[in-house]
């Protein structure tokens, strides 16, 4: 069982600040220990505030960051539904990470399935050295683009594809698999809002079934899991 910690922050802004501070701390640790920081960014809406705070953080050695994506909607990079589009606007275009060290998942192939194979070829060598995997939680219990009951949950590769889940947007996805996610030294979930409260309590329950609640399947083999949640999302957690 991975080491797990849960931090409840009073507000969404406090959550974003704590998340940015934790990323900065983990980056410093990685640079000191291994000379580079390998991070996979989360998509969705929750991380955006933290990315904007990161972009304003002085004194970071961005030149030694390697930025992957935990998952992506199979749409163009200028599509507002794209996770890369959000991360580029909030963070990547504001900081001097060398372009060759940013690895977006782009619709370069006719299908998401083909892009998944191509992405694994591009980033597979970095995944065993993944310092930080940032994650969100869908209110259906998904994380990355690992949706309840979908074949992607059983993938043995490092990257796979998935048809749309029940939550929007209804587009194919490319996603890291459990095998890749559980290589991470640090998996950090950012969960905000009352709409996530019931699902968060189910996912954190010891009996959670990862086939129905995929976020419960994030259990790094040797790494840790940190849940950064705001008070509204934590409302259904046991006292
Ligand atoms: C995506 C994300 C997904 C997200 C959750 C939570 O592509 O949608 O990777 O896993 O993290 O759906 O999304 P919100 O932060 O928007 O609630």
Question: TL;DR?
Answer:
This protein is α/β, with parallel strands linked by helices and 239 residues long.
Which descriptors apply to this entry?
alpha/beta; binds 6-phosphogluconic acid; 3-stranded antiparallel beta sheet; 239 residues; 6 helices; 6-stranded parallel beta sheet
Task: Explain what this protein looks like in three dimensions.
There is one protein chain. With 239 residues, this protein is of the alpha/beta class. The protein has helices at 12-34, 48-55, 83-90, 112-123, 178-181, 197-204; strands at residues 3-9, 37-41, 65-69, 71-73, 132-135, 159-162, 173-176, 186-191, 224-230. The strands form 2 sheets. A 6-stranded parallel sheet has the order 1-9-8-5-2-3, covered by helices on one side. Helix 6 links the parallel strand 8 and strand 9 (224-230). The longest helix has 23 residues, at 12-34. It is globular and about 45 Å long. The protein starts with a strand and ends in a 9-residue tail after the last strand. The structure holds 6-phosphogluconic acid. Residues 42-46, 71, 73, 83, 136-138, 142-145 line the site of 6-phosphogluconic acid.
